[in-house]
Structures are given as C-alpha cells and as structure tokens.
Amino acid sequence: MTKIFYLMRHGQTRFNQQQRIQGASDSPLTALGIEQAQAARDYFEQEGIQFAAVYSSTQERAVDTAEIASGRADIIRRKGLKEMDFGAFEGQQEFLNPPIKRDGSGYGDYFVTYGGEDSITVRERVHTAITEILSEHQAEQPPLIVSHGGAIAQFYRNYAKTSPQLKARISNCAIFKMTFEDGEFDLVSIYDPVTKTFLFQNEAAD
After folding, report:
1. What angle do helix axes 119-136 and 149-159 make, rounded to 10 degrees?
2. 3-class secondary structure per residue, 74-88
3. How far apart are CA 190 and CA 164, in angstroms?
C-alpha cells in the first residue's frame, strides 16, 4: 500500500530575515513568514487536501507554521523532526557556514567540534521520526509534517529514490509531496505556495 504524505518547511523567521544560523535555537515567524504559511493553507484548501493528522518538530517556528497552514491546533510534536544543531555557530551570520557537500553528506561532521550535530545523525533521526509517523498512520487522508530546511534536505537527498538537486536552498513553506511504499520513500513534487510554482515534478511517481 502506497502512503502519501506532505513534508513542509516552516515560514520565514526573524533569524532567516537577518541571515543568521538557526538550528537548535529558535526565533519567531515574521509577518512574511505568517503570510507564507497562509499561502500554504490556501493551496491545500484549493486542492482539497485534508490531513488526518498534523505533525511538527517541537520548535516554535515549525509548530506555528503547522497551525497556520493546517488551520488546526492539535499539532503532534516530535523531537526527531527538529533542525540540525549547529553548536557554537547558532545565531551567528550565515556566511560563516562551510560549503555544503554536494554528495548528500551536507556539512558532514564539521559542527561536532563546536558542540553541534553531524549530518548523518540528523538524517537518521528525521528518517526514524517520519517512518514512525507513517507506521502509526492508517487513515486514507495523508499527514502533514512540518520540519526545517536542513533536516528536510538531509532526509530526502539520502532516502528518496528521486533526489533532484535544487538550484537554490529550500524555500520557506516549500511543500514536498512524498510517497512511502515497501519501506522506500520517493519524491512526487516540490511546490512553492508563495510563487505558486512547482520547483520539481516527478512524472514517474505521480
């Protein structure tokens, strides 16, 4: 049985706006971030997409986005969906980040020296969290899962059968439509509800 689920990044935050590194630390959604989440809700309503349950990382920016995008308050929080911990780099300017490796390993173990996480740990805990959510989920309607840019990138680039290299970083409130069947994940599409454009479409998986 093929299960469909939607994986979405949170809306713009104050740290995003200030171009600061934001992982384990948190900052509130900006006015634009709220508008982005509302745009996601408009898309789901226009497409007639209803969710059996809504999941989010435990971080405020993701929970608030989940509530706005779904119109629900019964958000189920999972620590496994949290963003990567950047250790001593938290709150610093983004230009201090090292280059991302294009082989799927992200930042590797660069931030471990500074008290943060390595990319493998992030991808494995997000994979575990999403797999557990889907194993609990037997309803016909899909779940919505709200997480973070780095966490989502590590997950889909390493576990989806189809893994496109996007020209830019994952946009705020980008919506990943994904499938799960026989223990395997695949990516159907990536939609930006703000610009109302598909960033990726997988015709073979649709």
Report:
1. 80
2. CCEECHHHCCCCCHH
3. 10
pLDDT higher than 80, residue 130 = yes
Query: Is the whole-model pTM more than 0.70?
Result: yes
- The pLDDT score that the predictor gives to residue 103 is 75
Q: Which of 10, 90, 117, 148 is catalytic?
A: 10
Mean local confidence (pLDDT), 160-186: 91
At residue 205, the pLDDT reads: 63
3-state secondary structure 33-58: HHHHHHHHHHHHHHCCCCCCEEEECC
Catalytic, 60? Answer: no
Instruction: Report whether pLDDT(206) > 60.
Output: no
Domains of the chain: 3-201 (3.40.50.1240)
**Binding site residues for substrate, as ranges?**
9-16, 61
Question: Is 35 an annotated catalytic residue?
Answer: no
- Among the listed residues 83, 90, 117, 148, the single catalytic one is 83
If one counts every other C-beta atom within 10 angstroms of the C-beta of residue 187, the result is 22
Residue-wise pLDDT for 56-97, tens only, equals: 999 999 999 999 999 999 999 999 999 999 999 999 999 999
